[in-house]
Amino acid sequence: MICVAVTGKREETPLVSTLYFEWDQIVKPGQFVMVWLPDVGEIPMSLSITEGTKAITVKEYGPTSKALRNLEPGDRLFFRGPYGDSFTPAEGEVLLVGGGTGMASLRPLISLNSSAVVSARNEKELLFDDEFERERIFRVTDDGSAGVKGTPVDQLRSMDLERFSMLYVCGPEKMLKAVHDYLKGRNVKAEFSLERLMKCGIGICDSCSVDGYQLCRDGPVFDIESIGRMREFGVTKLTDSGRRVKI
Amino acid sequence: MPDISAKIAGLELENPLILASGILDENGYTMRRIMEEGAAAVVTKSIGIDERAGYRPPVIAEVDSGLLNAVGLANPGIESFGEEIEIALTAGKPVIGSIFASTVEDFVNLAEKMEKFSVSGVELNLSCPHVEGFGTEVGSDASLVEEIVTEIKKKISVPLFAKLSPNVSNMLEIAKAAERADAYVLINTVRGMSIDINARKPVLSNRYGGLSGSAIKPVGIRYVYEVKKETGKEIVGVGGIETGYDAIEYIMAGASALQIGTALFRHGRRVFDLVNGQINDFMAREKVDRIDELIGVAISG
Ligand SMILES: Cc1cc2nc3c(=O)[nH]c(=O)nc-3n(C[C@H](O)[C@H](O)[C@H](O)COP(=O)(O)O)c2cc1C
Ligand code: FES
Asked: Which end of chain B has the least Cβ crowding within 10 Å, N or C?
């Protein structure tokens, strides 16, 4: 288990914080670590900054993420990794499509050539939308408190997507499925980062599998053709007991 | 070309490698893919009567030459699991259903349900080292083991595999108690623990866990050898098989077929093709035509 000190903290939204730490390790955008809070639990976290000082961006969700979010500079951070594959770098203009904390794993892809469709329930929960130039950010909220009211697809419909060399998509699976179905058959390249329960992170426990692929090892990033072939994508997933439930 | 097909408890396997219980076998689609990518058969994760979420993570820790796990028998309960078996069976290869319980009645009930789901065999987890009341607590009670095996044999017609624990004072005694099973599966994980020295705490949420991987291979070899020598029964060897040479070693100790679990961590799903390739190469080099020519050849005295 790797053990480092938290060196900085930034509050991003009312429920989301970024924790910064020094870790001398090559990490690629899209990869994740398994963060351990002794006596509390262990959860997968994408790296929201992969160059130089590293960072994770955590939303308070269950007991472990809550305890993680309560860490302060100087506290110790335990984790193992990095795990998983990464987004394929692309030349030219790229579009990030992020829902909720899905923006955390897309954060390392922000550059002068990136635009983004950032969605959340409401204006306060929009994540990393301030990292973009005005003309490069398209906000979407469920309640219409900022930008387009609706889903990312409502925004994508009004955009010329063929001018982007790549679309990178991350967010809740329902959103991924809707974006996938909209993009399918169009002349665009796209990669999706999927999210599932992850108990081990190393391809052993089967909790993260979709169609026999382990997200922690074969993923979490898949291209649009691959996820299009997955029968479980957007349809069913397994709970922590292994019971199959609808998404 | 050597023939690497294997036969155990009447089951015909296209090669000797079976996926071990508890590793990548909770989701039917995963089991199907594992078989499509080279395993001759799979054992499901151990299934009980009731749904269990298992322990809270960390449930797995990397240790020297292996893994330590305490997943806590997470399973959806037997009723929900039929759906996964149905998906796995579309691979067209044998699926063996692993079950755990604390009473004879529950064991029998689970075995009958598994048979209804069209499994090719039932494996008794008499050996999970880290959940109170199940596994080893059952598996170290010789008379209980004998009753479980005897009662299940009366009720099912598919082969019955008894998976035994190395965490008992006398495995031979337990093996003899389980004699009416069609074959033994040796071994389950070895009880162990790992402490993070920076956190000053055990890594696993359950504190204790089961050690698997190459660290336990010599333990597995010894039990396969000893039990084969003393009982002559068919054995599935499991514990730390990562290469074809490990597999051959188990066969020479007395195993007729093999299971692989932890090596999926090092090699990924291609481990089955990798190990089969090495078994094939070894047999070609040693001019061995069939696996059964090697079973137990190291046993002497
Ligand atoms: C994560 C994990 C979960 C396991 N779960 C079970 C289980 O549910 N039932 C069982 O009989 N054995 C279980 N085992 C034991 C394996 O089936 C096998 O006996 C042991 O790991 C040794 O083989 P290996 O070194 O190839 O992994 C588990 C092992 C691991 C690593
Ligand atoms: S998290 Fe365990 S297999 Fe991926």
From this structure: C
